[in-house]
């Protein structure tokens, strides 16, 4: 065979190119193993963001409600909600929300821009009322169904609502405050056919007789993305709940979550979380609408029914909080644990140990953690599925979203400042307080009814004079691979039973007890439980004695179950910081072990209906998971 120098040169060139590609591929796998997954995910985020930018430029915002109406026209007969054995199509929800809009247009004296409070459990009419009011151009305030009378009244003042719509199962919750609501000229409508209370207007008969024709589209039209559409209440450091302002921009961002993680219209989404929280409403309902998918709405989470529901409805995606997954892992094992079609879970707060147990037991379900507070201006998404991480960052993400981790002094309970008064960034891998820069691309909309509360959530002059950052109150760490991990909360808030507990609110409530002179509320870790359980160090007023029964009755009446202190620690004096703030750090560190704490300890016992002395045997039974918490 004759030697062909041209062919030889071509083969040599081709081999060199292939070798180069192979080398680059190997280097990419070794040094940048997540490059392509990061790139494709970022492109999806940018694509979705570009759509929102078009809304800004054209002043023609396609809201989540507009998107629902589009889907109802495109796929009217497709199931939208599955609830307790009944199926509600996109057309069903569209027509019933039209009926509700017409009722309040004719009888409710509502106009565009009004605020309406909604106190309802998970049910299809929650969505119908929400959409119906939004079709009138009203802002809707989602009230937490666990909050008590004092907090409930406060919520109306926050958002300026003069109308309340209440579910049939929650009418009795209003008996203690209905007179106060009447004094404030708040009109109450209930989803019942008739009412025994003259001040509560029944709604169901009016809905049944109303027209299914849509109200004028001009009522719901939005030209500015930053127009408020919802108020979602969140516990904070001020004591009573705060009404986070939720704009159309935030609802649209939330609705893109499932899609960004790879959800499609073929998915069936399981929502066992309360709709009054942003996770279920913005990400869950909004995400289902964006995809044109179907969701299974659960009135209340049930660990024993969860997998049966998933199998019954062919669920492919479910929403979770870490506590939910722990409950599922604690259920008795069964032969059908891996018999289901669930491929993805979307949520937050999943501990690393529970994450591993969950996947070992129920299969390789892709768990997609999302980090972000209701009112916050920053979101992390763990699209890789890295166990233990709440999010993923990279160079491009940092260009688009400005955030920093700064040094934090846990003892002084404040950020570390240099000699010029500026914060100090932590090194890679170190734990720091997460701050997110406030700007045009990452606005902070704050809280309704109080500029003071909004300002309190901001930190100014952080790195340079004049800058402003949203203080998340969370301690985070970013490792060498750019995965972001949650470490702890700081300040006056902790999580228990999937809810935020505002220590100041609990402190103020305890302060109403006649024998308590001072109370310091904080959260303590209990092995095997997600979050922190409430504990209060209290000083008994001189001339009084500790009354365990009176305290039990008081917290049972005035605090939701998740906010009640499980443990009481009697003290003679309170430790204070140099700035006269109550010292919590050492109390948190010492926990609730009676063997290491010399001061009297008490435990909230629902069986005996009082606080009982916390003995070593009770302490051990708590650790063993034998006590109701």
Automatic annotation (TrEMBL):
Location(s) in or outside the cell: Cell membrane
Superkingdom per UniProt: Eukaryota
Record-listed E.C. numbers: 6.2.1.3
Entry GO terms, CC: endoplasmic reticulum membrane; plasma membrane
GO molecular-function terms, A-Z: long-chain fatty acid transmembrane transporter activity; long-chain fatty acid-CoA ligase activity; nucleotide binding
Origin species: Myripristis murdjan (pinecone soldierfish)
One GO process term, biological-process aspect: long-chain fatty acid import into cell
Coiled coil: none
Catalytic activity field: tetracosanoate + ATP + CoA = tetracosanoyl-CoA + AMP + diphosphate; a long-chain fatty acid + ATP + CoA = a long-chain fatty acyl-CoA + AMP + diphosphate; a very long-chain fatty acid + ATP + CoA = a very long-chain fatty acyl-CoA + AMP + diphosphate
Enzyme class: ligase
Record's keyword terms, sorted: Cell membrane, Fatty acid metabolism, Ligase, Lipid metabolism, Lipid transport, Membrane, Nucleotide-binding, Transmembrane, Transmembrane helix, Transport
Family listed: Belongs to the ATP-dependent AMP-binding enzyme family.
Protein name per Swiss-Prot or TrEMBL: long-chain-fatty-acid--CoA ligase
Listed transmembrane segments: 6-27
Domain AMP-binding enzyme C-terminal intervals: 508-581
InterPro entries: AMP-bd_C (IPR025110), AMP-bd_C_sf (IPR045851), AMP-binding_CS (IPR020845), AMP-dep_synth/lig_dom (IPR000873), ANL_N_sf (IPR042099)
Pfam families the UniProt entry points to: AMP-binding, AMP-binding_C
Chain ranges of the AMP-dependent synthetase/ligase domain: 70-392
Gene3D superfamilies from the UniProt entry: 3.30.300.30, N-terminal domain of ligase-like
Main subcellular location: membrane
């Amino acid at each position: 065979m004759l030697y062909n120098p041209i062919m030889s040169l071509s083969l040599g060139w081709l081999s060199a190119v292939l070798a180069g590609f192979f080398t680059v591929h190997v280097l990419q796998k070794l040094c940048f193993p997540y490059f392509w997954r990061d790139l494709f995910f970022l492109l999806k985020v940018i694509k979705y963001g570009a759509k929102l930018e078009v809304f800004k430029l054209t002043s023609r915002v396609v809201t989540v409600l507009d998107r629902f109406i589009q889907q109802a026209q495109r796929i009217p007969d497709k199931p939208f909600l599955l609830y307790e054995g009944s199926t509600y199509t996109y057309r069903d929800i569209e027509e019933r929300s039209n009926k509700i809009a017409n009722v309040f247009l004719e009888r409710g004296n509502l106009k565009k821009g009004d605020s309406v409070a909604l106190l309802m459990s998970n049910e299809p009419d929650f969505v119908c009322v929400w959409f119906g009011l939004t079709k009138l151009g009203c802002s809707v305030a989602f009230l937490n169904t666990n909050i008590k009378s004092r907090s409930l009244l406060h919520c109306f003042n926050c958002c300026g609502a003069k109308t309340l719509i209440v579910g049939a199962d929650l009418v009795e919750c209003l008996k203690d405050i209905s007179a106060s609501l009447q004094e404030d000229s708040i009109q109450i409508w209930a989803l019942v056919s008739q009412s025994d209370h003259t001040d509560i207007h029944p709604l169901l008969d009016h809905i049944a007789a109303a027209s299914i024709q849509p109200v004028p589209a001009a009522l719901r039209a939005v030209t500015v993305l930053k127009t408020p559409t919802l108020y979602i209440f969140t516990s904070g450091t001020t004591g009573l709940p705060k009404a986070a302002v939720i704009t159309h921009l935030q609802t649209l961002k939330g609705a893109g979550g499932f899609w960004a993680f790879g959800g499609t219209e073929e998915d069936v989404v399981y929502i066992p979380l309360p709709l009054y929280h942003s996770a279920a409403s913005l990400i869950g309902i909004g995400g289902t609408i964006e995809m044109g998918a179907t969701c299974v709405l659960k009135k209340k989470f049930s660990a024993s029914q969860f997998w049966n529901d998933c199998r019954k409805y062919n669920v492919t995606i479910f929403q979770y909080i870490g506590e939910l997954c722990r409950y599922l892992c604690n259920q008795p094992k069964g032969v059908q644990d891996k018999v289901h079609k669930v491929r993805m879970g979307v949520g937050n707060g999943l501990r690393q140990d529970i994450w591993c147990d969950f996947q070992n037991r129920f299969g390789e379900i892709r768990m997609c953690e999302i980090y972000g507070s209701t009112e916050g201006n920053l979101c992390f998404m763990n699209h890789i599925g890295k166990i233990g991480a709440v999010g993923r960052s990279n160079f491009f993400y940092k260009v688009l979203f400005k955030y920093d981790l700064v040094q934090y002094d846990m003892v002084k309970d404040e950020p570390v400042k240099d000699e010029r008064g500026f914060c100090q960034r932590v090194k890679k891998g170190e734990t720091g307080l997460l701050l997110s820069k406030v700007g045009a691309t990452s606005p902070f909309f704050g809280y309704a009814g109080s500029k003071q509360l909004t300002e309190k959530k901001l930190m100014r002059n952080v790195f340079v004079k004049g800058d402003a950052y949203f203080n998340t109150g969370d301690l985070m760490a970013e490792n060498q691979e750019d995965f972001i991990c949650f470490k702890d909360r700081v300040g006056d808030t902790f999580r228990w039973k999937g809810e935020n507990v505002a220590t100041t609110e609990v402190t103020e409530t305890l302060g109403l007890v006649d024998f308590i002179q001072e109370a310091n509320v904080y959260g303590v870790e209990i092995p095997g439980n997600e979050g922190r359980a409430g504990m209060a160090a209290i000083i008994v007023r001189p001339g009084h004695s500790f009354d365990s029964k009176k305290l039990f009755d008081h917290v049972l009446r005035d605090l939701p179950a998740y906010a009640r202190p499980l443990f009481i620690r009697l003290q003679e004096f309170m430790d204070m910081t140099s700035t006269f703030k109550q010292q919590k750090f050492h109390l948190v560190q010492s926990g609730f072990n009676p063997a290491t704490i010399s001061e009297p300890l008490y435990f909230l016992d629902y069986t005996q209906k009082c606080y009982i002395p916390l003995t070593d045997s009770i302490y051990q039974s708590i650790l063993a998971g034998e006590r109701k918490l």
